[in-house]
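Troubleshooting: if your tokenizer reports a length mismatch, compare against these two reference records.
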Amino acid sequence: MDIMVIHGPNLNLLGQRKTEIYGNQGLDYINKEILEYGERNGLKIEIHQRNSEGEIIDLLHRAGREFHGVVLNPGAYTHYSHAIGDAVEAINIPVVEVHISNIYSREEFRRKSVVAPYATGQITGFGPFSYILAIEGLRNIGGGKKYGKD
């Protein structure tokens, strides 16, 4: 199974920015954990971090052609990027939306996701382990077509 992991804007600053919310682990450490989990479970995982909305959309389009599923942390784009939501809807593979913090226990504007209606599922609030939970979810549904949408 081939899975693309996409980290959105500002996630390159993990371990430095708002550590009381996002923790002390940097993105390199999180990516290492993701890749090791994939290797242990026979998965091919490709990881990207982008701050640009258009680049995230391009990655989603590519994933729709070349991968079995996507783990997407859209960062702040979660709350207003209808373009990323449209890209998730447009590809015919499962996408799991991930957030390190619990977006529902934070500021009001963070409680609305414009991506979630098009995602197969959402995992929020388990810190960096949220990524592993999302990958496990994709493994369990087998990737391929969107679960419940075909």
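Reference record two:
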Amino acid sequence: MLSPDRLGYKDRGKMKWQGLMLSDHNAALKQMKEDNKKQYGVEKEQMTTEEVSEVLYKAYILKKPVAIQANVLRDGHYYPDVKCIVKGYTGENIYLQLKDGQMKKVSIYLIRHVEYMDSAEWYVKRKHKKKPTF
């Protein structure tokens, strides 16, 4: 079977498109790096179980939102903080309500660090996009 390449035809379009593919590839790699940075959290100070318990208990009593860093690594990095409100506790389990309304049960021994959040950040409503008017 004969093809243009076998007949000696050199398509310069192949060469031109390689430059565009390289810049698109670089942009995609840059976006992937930024997405990975968002997936990982900064390593925070390891708190004792007593310190974690005290902060969670006060947050429960005062109904204050907290940011919790799990003591779990993924690819050598910690997950980003979980923002939540403490809804209750039984023994070593803590019941948390996430910002989207989900309820989660977490063992206190899986918590690396916990800190109070700014209440205004927790209660800020999402801004709705305005629909275009014609």
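Descriptive notes for reference record two:
- The chain has two domains: 12-40, 49-123.
- Residues 52 and 114 are 6 Å apart (CA to CA).
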